[in-house]
Amino acid sequence: MGLKPATNPDVEAATIELSIDGKPVTAKDGVSLYDVISSTGKIIPAMCYHYTFDPFGSCGMCLVMQEGKKAPVRSCTAKAAAGMIIRTEGDDLFQARKKAVEKHLSVHPLDCPVCDADGHCELQDMAFQHGVTNLASAKQKLIPEDTRSPVLDFNMNRCIACAECINVCKDVLMIDALQFMKKGGFNQVVPKGDQALSCEFCGDCLAVCPVGAITNKFSKYLYKPWQMKKTTTTCNYCGDGCQMQLETKDAEVVRVTSPLSWKNKWGDRTDTAKGHGGLCVRGRFGFEYIDSPVRLKQPLLRKGNQLVQVPWLEAMHHVADRFADIQRQHGPDAIAGLITARCTNEELYLFQKLMRTAFRTNQFDSSARYGHLNFVHASRKALGIGRSPNDWEDLTKAKAIIVLGSNITETNPLTAVRIKEAIRVYKAQVVVIDSAVTNMAKLASHPVLINPGTEGLVIEGLIKATLELGLIDEDSTKKHPKAFEALKAAVAHVSLEQVAAHTGMSIDALNSTAAIFAEAPRSIILCAEGIVRQSNGYQNVLKLIDLAWITGKLGQPGCGVSTVTEEPNEQGAVDMGAAPEFFPGQALFSDQTARDRFGKAWDVTLPAAGSGADLVEILKRCRSGQIRALYVIGENPLATLPSSMEVRAALDRLEFLVVQDPFLTDTGRMAHAVLPACTSAEKDGTFTNLEGRVLRVREAIDPIGESLPDWHIMTALANALGDQWEYESSNDIQAEIMKLLPGYYNLGQPRKVVPTVDRYLSNGYAADVAARYRASAPSGAKSQRPFSLSMGQILYHSGKMSTSAFGLIKIAPNTGRLRMNPLDMEQLAVGDGAKVRLTSDLGSLQVAVQSDPSIAPRTCFFPEHFNEPPVKDLMPVQVDATTGVPSFKHALVMIEKA
Amino acid sequence: MAFEDQRTTVYKVDPAHPESETLPTLRTEELLLNMGPQHPSTHGVLKVILELEGERLVKSTPVLGFLHRGVEKLAEDGTYHQFIPHTDRLDYVCAMYNNFAYCRAVEKLMNITVPDRAEYLRTIVAEVQRIIGHQFWLGTQALDIGAMTVFFYCFRDREILLDWFDELCGARLTTSWYRIGGVERDFTASLLDKLKQFLDYFPPKIDEYVVFLEKNRIWVARTKGVAVISAEDAVSFGLSGPTLRGSGVDYDLRKAEPYSAYPKCEFSVPLGKNGDTYDRYWIRVQELYESVKIIRQCLEQMQDGPIMADVPSVTMPPKERVFTNLESMIQHFKLFSQGFNAPPGEIYCGTEAHKGELGFYIVSTGGGKPYRLKIRAPSFIHMGAFDYMSRGYMIADAITLFGTYDIVMGECDR
Amino acid sequence: MRATLLIKKILQAALFDEIWDAMKVTFKHMFHKPITFQYPREQRILPDTHRGALALLRYDDHQERCVGCDLCEAACPSRCIKVVSSEDAERPLQRFASEFYIDITKCVFCGYCVEACPVNALAMTKMYEFSTHDKRTLLFDKERLYDIGERHLDDAKKYLHAHNQEKNVEESREYRYYFPQSVLKPTQPPPKHLG
After folding, report:
1. How many structural domains are present in chain B?
2. Do A883 and A381 meet the contact criterion of CB atoms below 8 Å apart?
């Protein structure tokens, strides 16, 4: 539409001057007059306007007088032009605006008492502000309420037809699930095609609805806005780190609202490059796990064959005594620990400190091990940076983005919105390479479907294509001729034809992708679960860095190889040293200077450098009986890892298993002691999101039952074991981290780190690179197991935690069905809901199927959040030799009709 | 003795006596006496530390705060409208006048003009409240000094008015009848009848009260020349109301800054000469007659009309409009849940309550709640002069002094 | 003249003239009817406006008037009301107060909640005797409030009338709130007065 400023940083719009209320104002040519006026700090009422999308102009409130025109003009749809003389105030304008409000009021029903928006309603505000009285009452609409959707109710009697919901859905989120429809004599907002609403349920339409026309089913009628206590905190579902407001009434979380709201509708669209303030379905509707009735409220101890509720004092005495006993009898290395990356930075720091100083062992790991560490290790090795180099603003303003192995709209929906904005507003070219037809692929300029598990090969093909097409950046490669030669030699054996044949990506596509990436001034590669959670993840990230290097994208502003994290604080877990190989700040545990520094700071003799164990090693040592006690915080290895990892056997051999979790998990049921922990809504702290920003988590409600924050329990445990920890709040821990890692919090903004690619390229690169591109023979067992089964995230869930959120389960229950392409189902002659037998190398089970056109032919998908049926047990596990990351999301299977 | 008490003076009975060396010595010392907080004549939980030399008061230090409820802080937590019931509990004897003073302050902040009829209603009820206040004062003051009968007669007649309040607004003491922009409810025919009857009945009764006191030599002895304060001192202590006018200072806000229907009524402001307790008593009795006069005039002048200003963004809409009109319903919901949007600024508004100048100072930073609300309570200001006025009088006069200010601790401690 | 005045004064002083004056008034009162009465045998007659215990009301057809809008909670200056509202399980899309508490120990009887109620579900009655052996019973719950409303229905209606809240029963019927219907299943007939 072009009413918004041409925000592309490459093209500047001309600057013009106009006069507003007698004051000269400069603005960009062609932008909305309303934006120009609001940029001066003057707020004209407008009910259909929101800065995140183009003006719509239906409410008729934003009237201004333009000199030379008789009637007032709508400022939102008028373009600012040079020399305009505008008046924004005056009695005539006030009366005109009042008329507009009256028009909306006259057909509005009298239902403030039962409306959830009452008190948070722009129509109310406007009527009140303009002092409307003595209105002629018009005919009531009497439209029945649309309650068909599982999430949102549409009461079109209240609608003022501002179309904010439609616009935000279409323009910002590019989902386009709503439309206007003339029905019963009134223009109504209905879900596309007047069906029950089925969309991503992000709820941004609910957030921008200025009246109560769209209401939230999960908190319907439970509240009035004025009763709520609002706590701004960080979402606990994925690594995007969205800010949200938990609205609570007493000890109950009633709803979640976003910074995106009709209440703050003024801004410049360029502001949205750092995020538009919205939430996704998990953040907005997945809050019910917090005060779920199945939350643990008291510590449990195993007495005989069952877990019995005991008071905290007894539980802590028991836990401390048992740990001390085992430590005394079998030495410190008989104890190990696991922690989830859903804990705050402070807790992750405290956990590794507890392990290293109180238990004196280096056997512990966090859930960052499931994938993110692949990226961290590769990036650290090649560039010296242990995190994604690009932030949301880079993504929004990129000219080319390659999304490789990431179903980003499902895993990190708000990062996906950044890419959508890059497509829509900044006209970026987006190449989506995936083995499924993802939502992003539907929007991308270059969607590419590849065979599952061939991502690594695709990267090789891209490098080869880059070399063949001569797209290399001379400046970067000339500095390291040796390394470049080594790389050329290493990929010499790769043939594009073979790559194309194996991956299913045509040579043309490879060539054009390589060209798009190399030629764009700002290009980013985004790799996620399809790379880092698969086998060879570490090597594949390094290959991507090679590609970025030879095209000269390393260290350039707005360019780089990035990843997204699945759990909110995976980055924080690495930064806080909750991994055996790292100290806080990602200093290597084996590094002597770091050992001296931290040993001195903590006043202990640290465990020997080689004695550490990561997740896989810990389980092995548990099985061998070397580890006798395990301290598990928020992790659930039993439900996460395939049975081939023999987790149950490992846990069975333990003398003492402590599980600290808000819920009684599968692992918890095996434990000797279960300690009730808080969710992030009940504690203070920080998360580090995928950009490296440190975000505050704030306590919204008091801990439920007798549950306690993890840091509190750990402090008590350390003190019971004889240490003197004096942390009284997470601020005390923060203060200690600040001393050890100066600048880590840095007001939330990540520190700029310059990639040091030269060190790696001149030292040992040549040796590495040959091994990296060694021809990997694609498995020929295809005929036996023709289908490729993958497990992954779906939009409505995150890990296992979200399955306790009643609302999310209502939206996406465990159907227990395998998703397959309809063509394949036709071939197998099975219909929706029919049972099939699924056989992999590790076993076989019966499962129902469901058709899903977004699944590529010859593949099938099962969400990783559910273990019923236990599809995960069919998965083979491959452990990365360098990083110890277990990958178990992909298997070759045979499907027969059962 | 290891140390000598500083306040103890030891002296001979008569140092000039030839045998003074052999005469015994008398030790006299100042006595510190805690009066209150549980004392029947301190009018609430007030404690005064009296320093006595014999029966004489050397110094008296009022200790306040036993009835502190943080009313000013409570105001910051609610809308302007919600504070009205809290004002009932300031001077709980005369809730109407507190309501009146507060509403006037908010109306000044919001720049609202109250309709004529409402102004008359407000004036009438305020004067009825003044009568109640003075009756209450007269009864208790007389009781404190020792005359019990007056107390009974005053309270008997006060009952009539309290019942009248009950019929007017539903409560006898905690009235909350005034509203920002008007009043809650109009007079009914029965209320008007009862009020008129009372106006005929009451003046002779005042004469009756006076019979017991004016010629009573105990009363006269205990009030004339007791707790005298000069006009200059009274002004510099910030006294107001009858306490100030007793010293002959002609300052009455009803005349100085006429408000409500007062400018339309003829009445005189009685003034004292000596500034003693008796003059203050006399003024209050005269004010009873004046109040009756004002009420009569108001009843005559009052015309039919609305009892609530119609400013949609501030005043509550009538209930029947709420049921039928959306804009009134919105207004209703907005006002009750969030309050009206006050302009940023500060305002002080003083009103002549029967005790003195009752002022509300409001600081608004915009929005529906006051940023700060300060109450200038006459009882509190008057307690400032207690020490000065009590010096040199007998201990029994301390009780007269409490009474003569007409203090109510609810207002003093807030 | 002056002498006679002086003599009169001396006589008055000697004969305690003021006592005779006062006694005259006192004796006159011996023949008045006493204005006190014997509570609790005798009860005060309260005016209709009297602000006593709060009550919740129903419509004539026994439907609860309250729609759980929480405005009374917002209006209450002493924060003694707690309303828990939700969707009625039996009647989809209808809002009602599933729980309603008034802490009568905190209540200041200002009547703001009645004024705030947009459906006149609340009213005050002439009941003022709350004495109890158990302080906990002074937390009035929904059941108790409806019970008071039923037992003091006349007083409640008079109160609403006296305070200009509701003219008569017809009016209350007319203002009754009608909920939107669901596309899936209508739960009530459409309102007559709006048809």
Report:
1. 1
2. no
Q: Is residue A220 pLDDT above 80, yes or no?
A: yes
pLDDT mean for each 10 residues of chain C (195 residues): 82 78 81 83 87 87 84 90 86 84 90 88 88 88 89 88 78 65 59 49
- The yes or no reply on domain A787-897 and CATH 3.30.450.40 is no
Read off the pLDDT of residues C67-92 as tens digits, 9 standing for 90 and up: 888 889 989 999 899 998 888 887 77
In a domain, B246, yes or no: yes
Residue A660: pLDDT over 90: yes
Answer whether residue B117 is part of any domain: yes
C90: domain range? 54-174
Q: Check the CA dihedral A792-A798-A799-A803 and report its sign.
A: negative
Please tell me if residue B162 touches chain C, with a CB cutoff of 8 Å: no
Task: Name the nearest CA neighbour of B167 among B192, B146, B196.
Answer: B192
| B299 CB within 8 Å of a chain A CB | no
Please, which pLDDT band fits residue A1 given cuts at 50, 70 and 90?
A: very low
CB-nearest to A148 from C71, C92, C184 is C184
Is residue C41 situated within a structural domain? no
C193 found inside a domain: no
Judge whether B151 lies within some domain: yes
* Backbone φ, ψ for residue B394 (5° rounding): -80, 165
Phi and psi for A171 in degrees, rounded to 5?
-80, -40
- How far apart are the CA of B88 and the nearest CA of chain C, in angstroms? 10
Determine the structural domain holding residue B212 and report its residue range: 112-339+395-413
CB contact under 8 A, C68 and A221: yes
- Number of C-beta neighbours around residue A681 at 10 A: 23
Residue B303 near chain A (CB below 8 Å): no
- Annotate A532-556 with b (16+ C-beta within 10 A) or e (fewer): bbbbbbbbbbbbbbbbbbbbbbbbb
Interface touch A144/C181, C-beta < 8 Å: yes
Tens-digit pLDDT profile for residues B231-284: 888 899 989 989 898 888 888 888 888 888 888 888 889 998 888 888 898 899
Non-local CB neighbours of A8 within 8 Å, separated by 6+ positions: A426, A427
Give the domain A104-285 fold. Alpha-Beta Plaits (3.30.70)
pTM of the entire predicted model: 0.86
Q: Per residue in B184-228, pLDDT tens?
A: 888 888 999 999 999 998 888 888 888 778 877 788 888 888 888
Interatomic CA distance for residues A703 and A685, integer angstroms: 14
> Residue holding tokens 């002895």?
B221
CATH 3.30.70.100 fits A310-367+570-748, yes or no: no
* The listed CATH number (3.30.70.890, 3.40.50.2020, 3.30.565.10, 3.10.20.740) that belongs to domain A15-103: 3.10.20.740
Between A118, A129, A131, which is nearest B333 by CB? Answer: A118
| Of residues C85, C119, C180, nearest to A221 (C-beta) | C85
Instruction: Name the CA radius of gyration of chain A, rounded.
Output: 29
pLDDT at residue A301 tops 90: yes
Q: How far is C100 from chain B (nearest CA, A)?
A: 18
Residue of C69, C71, C181 lying closest to A145 (CB–CB)? C181
C169 beta partners: none
Q: Distance (Å) from the C-alpha of residue B51 to the closest C-alpha of chain C?
A: 36
Peptide bond into A676 cis (omega under 30): no
Q: What percent of chain A has pLDDT over 70?
A: 97
Superfamily of domain A389-563: Dimethylsulfoxide Reductase, domain 2 (3.40.228.10)
- ipTM for the predicted complex comes to 0.81
Q: Do the chains contact at A144 and C182, CB–CB below 8 Å?
A: yes
CATH number at residue C138: 3.30.70.3270
Question: Kindly report the CA angle at A491 between A489 and A492, in degrees rounded to 5?
Answer: 60
